[in-house]
UniProtKB/TrEMBL annotation:
This is Ketoacyl reductase. GO terms for biological process: bile acid metabolic process. Keywords: Oxidoreductase. SUPFAM superfamilies: NAD(P)-binding Rossmann-fold domains. It comes from Halobacillus karajensis. CDD domains: BKR_like_SDR_like.
Length: 263
């Protein structure tokens, strides 16, 4: 299948490591021009070099960007346009908010989670839309969580704002379809990333068990019997963001090995 991504201008947020890095790698393998971003310049430099080396694609650049800062987002998109003349694909991504229950969080905690996990997506979409509308085509993929289908214990902040991302994408899918701009949301299940490892460690400590025992028990609840690999998740994202996807929009997909039982 030709994904029609060669030479396309792609922006991936929070992409120096984890799922964002895996997604950027897959785009680079398809010949896209990939602009990666995160808050850490050293990590970005290393990730850029790794992606170029593994993919053989030298059209990889980076921009330092804190997604909670409006000016940083504006500069990120401007760099993509200066570099490639346009933005064809936006992958919205951000680190997850802290784990915890409702009574553990203050107004400031809720505000920070809103700015990180919902307002940042809104701002980046706003910035790329003029370019996409001018071309009369574009693809936007929002990275969320499996909580878009089934809430997760001890993750009240994530449950709240990931649901907001789904509402944003569904509403925009109606508004943008006539411009041939498709927008979808993808949530990871138990994918082997640093974020999941940190959550496992915190949960194991709370339950008074080892991380190894917790992981083994979790794997038993996954029909495929294992955690997913970042590249497996990335491939689903890249398809939705590609020219091969011509009719899927406003959808919410979980990549979870069958873990989520909700319809």
């Amino acid at each position: 299948m030709d994904l029609q991504l060669k030479g396309k201008s792609v922006v991936v947020l929070a992409s120096s490591k984890g799922l964002g890095k895996a997604i950027s790698m897959e785009f680079a393998k398809e010949g896209a021009h990939v602009l990666i971003s995160s808050r850490n310049q050293e990590e970005l430099e290393n990730t850029k070099a790794e992606i170029q080396d593994v993919s053989g694609n030298q059209k990889v650049e980076y921009q330092v960007c804190d997604v909670t800062k409006k000016d940083d987002i504006e500069q990120l998109v401007q760099k993509a346009i200066e570099w490639n003349g346009k933005v064809d694909v936006l992958v919205n991504n951000a680190g997850g908010p802290p784990a915890g229950t409702f009574d553990q969080f203050s107004d400031d905690d809720w505000q920070r989670a809103f700015e990180l996990n919902l307002l940042s997506f809104t701002r980046t979409i706003r910035e790329v839309l003029p370019s996409m509308k001018e071309q009369q085509q574009g693809r936007i993929v929002n990275i969320a969580s499996s909580s878009i289908k089934q809430t997760l214990d001890n993750l009240i902040l994530s449950n709240t704002f990931r649901a907001g991302i789904v509402g944003l994408a569904k509403g925009l899918s109606q508004e943008l379809a006539s411009d041939n701009i498709l927008i979808n949301t993808v949530g990871p299940g138990r994918i082997a990333t640093d974020r999941v490892a940190a959550l496992d460690e915190k949960r194991a400590k709370k339950l008074g068990t080892s991380v190894e025992e917790l992981k083994k028990k979790t794997e038993q609840s996954i029909p495929m019997g294992r955690y997913g690999e970042p590249e497996e998740f990335a491939k689903a994202v890249v398809f939705l963001a590609s020219g091969a996807n011509t009719y899927l929009t406003g959808q919410s997909l979980v990549v979870d090995g069958g873990l989520v039982k909700a319809l």
